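Hi all, a correction to my earlier message: I attached the wrong file for Phosphate transport system permease protein PstA. Here's the right sequence:
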Amino acid sequence: MSTMDQGSSPATIGEEALPGLDTGRSGGRALKNNLATVLIWLAFLIALIPLVWILWEVISKGAHSVTSATWWQKDQSGALPPGFDHNIRGARHAIVGTLEIGLITAIIAIPIAVLTAIYLVEYGRAGGNLNRRIARVVSFMVDILSGIPSIVAALFVFAVWVTTLNLHLVPFCVSLALTMLMIPVVTRSTEEMLKLVPTELREASYALGVPKWKTVLRIVLPTSISGIITGALLGLARVLGETAPWLFLTTYFAYLTYSPFGGNGIASLPTLISGQADNMSGAPISADRVWGAALTLIIIVLAINLLGRLLGRLTRVKS
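and the right structure:
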């Protein structure tokens, strides 16, 4: 004989079995969920408004300069031949200077940052008391570097290069200051990527008798190389827009130059913007150059970010 009446439904049985159940509670949870979703979208749109506004202003006011052939082929000095825009002139010298100093910065900062992250993850955590203490000090110093303003880094390089070593300022000093700003960014991103490598891979390598250094070189780094490359390029894109080291450690040079150790200075997009910004109100030509340089810098940073994501996809370990 069945204990369930034919007229009773599962909901009725559930309500009789759980007499204290509040049937309106699920509706309250749905309301809270919908309210939270609306607030999140609202916050996202509020944060998106200034970003879209800035991009629109820069693109609308700088597109005229960037789309000109003069902008990419000439600098700000000398007479231009027929066919070139004599008002805009060009920013080739600033683009080359920005990329050149950025490349030197990456060559110095990336190896130091990656080796620091390897020590913190592979040797600092699993080592003895001495290694752990050193790792804590190194991690603390990386945190300090990540919080210092760019002008402080420029002041430090100036004090060491000029006051202590009694040398003349050269564009290479800008690379040293930018290196101090880039190292903590790349170190933290590399550290997080190394932590994502499964411990089982390391233990399997150790079980086969592979030394620790070879395990790091042949197992850990290839597994995390995708994130390391992405983090390194993002760190480079972050320091390319810094202005204080350029203003403090070198002089703006209106001619195209390739020498990072030349005494005449070097041009960059941030210093081009700074030099032309004083005349924006009285000279429309200066305003065009400022907006064009700003848009060019955004394009370079965007290209580096896209390159980082592309290399990250190409170097990702296939499962």
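Sorry for the mix-up. The two ends are 57 Å apart (CA to CA).
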